[in-house]
From TrEMBL:
Stored InterPro entries: DtxR_MntR_Metal-Reg, Fe-transptr_FeoA-like, Fe_dep_repressor, Fe_dep_repressor_sf, FeoA_core_dom, HTH_DTXR, Iron_dep_repressor, WH-like_DNA-bd_sf
UniProt KW Nucleus keyword: no
Alphabetical keyword list: Activator, Cytoplasm, DNA-binding, Manganese, Repressor, Transcription, Transcription regulation
Keyword Signal applies: no
Protein name as it appears in the record: Transcriptional regulator MntR
Function: In the presence of manganese, represses expression of mntH and mntS. Up-regulates expression of mntP.
Location relative to the cell: Cytoplasm
Length: 217
């Protein structure tokens, strides 16, 4: 049976919220989706019937392997769509999220498989996040927040924790794009703002920004 739009939105929320033990609380889901707790409880009971979660009253949900796979496949559709919009339709990385939110609910697997083929099977989306494969498997990345780096370190911009339009436009204005080499020149003790060097120019980033930038060494 095909999943509904609402079910897919819940699945995607589980994907983003689940912890290392495969758990997430009803309260976390409620806040993330901006949906009232009774509605979340009712949906999770349905998910339990489908074997996507293990539901026990007053306990965190446990997302099953089947549930994780279903959630990853929704995210796969979203991230493939974002990549297609950027690579084949020349959209900016800051303009693709809302469109992908709509197209991710198309049910044709062939449609997304063809999209994957046209893109030559990308491993990451335009924001540096891994694209799950057809079986829901995801590449593991060893990334850290830019805010956790130290003065003098040289890192490479690999991903963002937030693909918000305003934040991506903020990065565009500073010519700070994926795969950019970043040298950390100074960290201000007072507010933890960071002076970085990109090529031949310097930029100052707020602590709020460095918290949302993920890098690799």
């Amino acid at each position: 049976m095909k999943t509904t739009l609402t079910e897919e939105n819940y699945l995607k929320a589980l994907f983003h919220l689940v912890d290392n033990e495969g758990k997430v609380t009803i309260n976390e889901l409620s806040k993330f989706l901006n949906v009232k707790m009774p509605s979340v409880n009712n949906m999770m009971k349905k998910f339990a019937e489908k074997k996507w979660v293990i539901y026990e009253t007053y306990k965190p949900l446990v997302v099953t392997e089947t549930g994780k796979r279903e959630a990853a496949l929704v995210v796969r559709k979203h991230r493939l769509t974002e990549m297609f919009l950027v690579k084949k339709m020349n959209f900016g990385w800051e303009n693709v999220h809302e469109i992908a939110e709509q197209l991710e609910h198309v049910h044709s697997q062939v449609f997304f498989d063809k999209m994957d083929e046209i893109l030559d099977y990308p491993k990451f989306d335009p924001h540096g996040e891994p694209i799950p494969d057809k079986d829901g498997n995801i590449i593991s990345q060893d990334l850290q927040k830019l805010s956790s780096c130290e003065t003098g370190e040289i890192v490479v911009f690999a991903s963002v924790t937030l693909s918000d339009d305003a934040f991506l436009s903020y990065l565009n204005d500073r010519k700070l794009l994926l795969d950019t080499r970043i040298k950390i020149i100074k960290i201000e003790p007072f507010d933890k703002s960071m002076t970085i060097e990109i090529g031949s120019k310097k930029e100052i980033l707020s602590k709020k920004a460095t918290e949302k930038i993920l890098v690799k060494k």
